[in-house]
Amino acid sequence: MNFVSFRESLNHIEIKIGLVLIDVVAMSYLVYNQANMTLSELFYKMIVIWLINLIFLRIINK
Prior knowledge:
Number of domains: 1
Largest sheet: none
């Protein structure tokens, strides 16, 4: 493994960690504000966040 591929893989790991942190913040916000929404709305918003993450991961892995 040369240095360039190691650096690229490190870059992908940093981006994925960033996405996980964004997920944690978004999910925490949804759980914190769940008193204002029904359970189905909460699950719907969690699924939307999950789908957005999948799209970003597909774009990054290309």
